[in-house]
Backbone:
């Protein structure tokens, strides 16, 4: 290579006029900015459904650029205490499991694991109070255009995008509809069967002891601990065209399919949309249970409402990109771009095994030399000998499974969930 060529290469690329740069910046800024509009409707039959609505949370106090939104519904059963406890404590417990100082992409990457820790911690704390009620949780975190949904139970969150594609962001933890979960419950010491009335099997599949139709929840102290609080977590990134979330309790979904719910309210603002979905569900089924619906529109800053979407049928394309996947399948690191350019799938994991959900690293507090429990975040002395496995602490190669590090209380919980110690329901059926 000649000297002339080298010096040519060292030259800076042609300068872009400042005006063009600023214009580009402004356009990008405009594209990136989004807002959320929401509306909720609840009709009570038993009064056991609760909302959590926090559109303006901030990772750093008084820093608008670190803002995120949280929306959740809690469908309680057997009383209201678990739903209320989860509503009041879950967000705090999730946030405390995200390492300090993370921002942007790192924060979002840490979120799925923190959701698992937060759900389990909330369940442990609730059970310590001795109440026996339980609750489903559908917990949605919106940061920029990224939507992360963690769920236990049979409430549902769907995403309706501008392409008219409707996708499911929650797992299904009804025993009747999830063979994988039936297997897990049975393997962990529970029994699955229908209610026996006068020699006849009636109703949906339930687990015993307890008689719950769900395989996962927070609470349910009177059911064996094979009913786990470990959430299904799915994380997607919307295009800057935005999308609509419909979060609703099971009584909506017993009456309407995801497509029907989405189509019933397209083009309407969020508050009217929530009313209409509930009305539509009642029309076909009547008010049989608490009926709760939360509609959240994630929209570009300069569009007050989502533009009406041409009504398209649930397409083959949709099945391809949001096709039914094994509930416990791994999907780490493989991000797929939907062909309609609407949604990028970032993360999905539904396993009930904490070993697969919490990672293997042992967070060490470099100041104190203490280890943090991966679930409750309490500092522990390494000398307490509380590694999840016996054997030398620092020889991961010699163990079948080396992490995460759990404190004694959380390790007991993990073993009980996996049927490795007798789970003791407070009240036997
Ligand atoms: Zn712990």
Residues:
């Amino acid at each position: 290579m000649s000297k002339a060529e080298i010096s040519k290469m060292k030259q800076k690329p042609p300068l872009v006029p400042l005006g063009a740069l600023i214009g580009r910046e402004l356009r990008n800024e405009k594209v990136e900015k989004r807002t959320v509009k929401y509306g909720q409707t609840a009709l009570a039959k038993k009064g056991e459904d609760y909302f959590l609505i926090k559109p303006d949370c901030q990772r750093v106090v008084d820093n608008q650029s670190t803002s995120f939104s949280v929306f959740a519904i809690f469908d309680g059963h057997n009383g209201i205490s678990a739903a209320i406890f989860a509503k009041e404590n879950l967000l705090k417990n999730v946030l405390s499991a995200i390492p300090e100082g993370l921002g942007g992409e790192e924060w979002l990457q840490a979120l799925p694991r923190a959701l698992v820790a937060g759900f389990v911690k909330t369940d442990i704390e609730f059970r310590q109070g001795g109440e026996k009620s339980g609750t489903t949780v559908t917990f949605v975190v919106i940061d920029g255009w990224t939507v992360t949904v963690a769920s236990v139970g049979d409430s549902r969150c769907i995403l309706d995008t501008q392409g008219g594609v409707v996708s499911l962001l929650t797992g299904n933890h009804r025993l009747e509809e999830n063979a994988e979960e039936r297997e897990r419950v049975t393997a962990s010491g529970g029994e699955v069967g229908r209610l026996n009335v006068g020699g006849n099997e009636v109703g949906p599949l339930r687990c015993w002891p307890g008689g719950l139709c769900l395989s996962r929840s927070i609470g349910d102290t009177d059911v064996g601990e094979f009913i786990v609080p470990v959430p299904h977590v799915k994380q997607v990134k919307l295009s800057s065209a935005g999308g609509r979330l419909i979060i609703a309790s099971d009584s909506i979904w017993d009456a309407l399919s995801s497509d029907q719910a989405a189509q019933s309210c397209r083009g309407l603002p969020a508050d009217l949309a929530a009313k209409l979905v509930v009305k539509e569900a009642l029309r076909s089924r009547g008010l049989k249970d608490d009926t709760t619906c939360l509609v959240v529109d994630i929209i570009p800053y300069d569009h007050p409402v989502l533009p009406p979407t041409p009504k398209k049928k649930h397409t083959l394309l949709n099945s391809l990109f949001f096709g039914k996947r094994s509930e416990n399948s791994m999907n780490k690191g493989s991000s797929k771009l939907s062909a309609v350019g609407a949604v990028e799938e970032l993360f999905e994991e539904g396993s009930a095994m904490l070993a697969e959900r919490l990672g293997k690293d042992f967070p060490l507090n470099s100041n104190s030399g203490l280890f943090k429990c991966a679930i409750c975040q309490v500092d522990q002395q390494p000398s307490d000998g509380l590694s999840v496995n016996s054997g030398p602490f620092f020889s991961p190669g010699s163990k079948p499974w080396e992490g995460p590090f759990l404190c004694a209380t959380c390790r007991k919980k993990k073993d009980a969930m996996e049927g490795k110690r007798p789970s003791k329901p407070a009240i036997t059926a």
